[in-house]
Amino acid sequence: MAxxxxxxxxxxxxxxxxFFVSNTAIAVPLWEIEGTSNRILLLGSVHFLRAEDYPLxxxxxxxxxxxxxxxLELVLDEISLTDMLRVQQELxxxxxxxxxxxxxxxxxxxxxxxxxxxxxxxxxxxxPFEPWFAALQITQLRLMQLGFDGSYGVDATMSSKARTxxxxxxxxxxxxxxxxxxxxxxxKAQQSFLLQTLEDADEISDELEIILAxxxxxxxxxxxxxxLEGLSxxxxxxxxxxxxxxxxxxxxxxxxxxxxxxxxxxxGAMHLVGKDSVQSMLGQAGIKTRQLx
Length: 293
Description:
By secondary structure, the chain is of the alpha/beta class. The chain has one domain. The protein contains 13 helices and six strands. A hairpin with a 6-residue loop joins strand 1 and strand 2.
């Protein structure tokens, strides 16, 4: 759940599926932050992968080896099942006892049912939850249908390796912070988020070849267009899930610049493309970044 929280399903699916490409052909989304007293690398992550997508590209392995500290969006292995259930109950369940069909209008619910049916997802099982949380569950279910698993994601792999190697692991935010950004969305924005998620789940396979070609060529502009397409139509979702988080992360990254330790910061690749990317915000603060080959 947490690893997918703030990636629109099209971004989730496209970034997972780009790893169908041979590892030797991948132009890894990796930047170096310049002008620091230490070395800070910024890596675009894929949260869900498959066993057969390994080994990871050599650039990722090299970046990991050079780092003293691994920084993730969220330190998942420090979150217990009790924590997850608590947050789910506090945020994902409507305090007035209303179900999914009560929280979106009748027309939207019929449309959601139709879209869910097209991808063999049973919307009834999501009835206890608010629309934003239902959208997250749909994302996970669709990725599972396609054979992807969060335990194979770049974040999970790097975190597990760092634990074994005794490296320090830090998180940019907590589980509560991640989920509250969605929970506080207005009702209409949550409804739009749910419907867009379902539409993308149904249509994603049509874009795979374009995505794969763009990734092979290191075509960041094309990836930006594909990943941010749906979010651009949902300004409130875009602001809370992307812009505000990137602003907070940028401040945290700036604080790391005077440290003596070397950092590898791993965030969803959607946060590293577009006009509101982390690199763009660092640039506005007078800090240069350089994409590594």
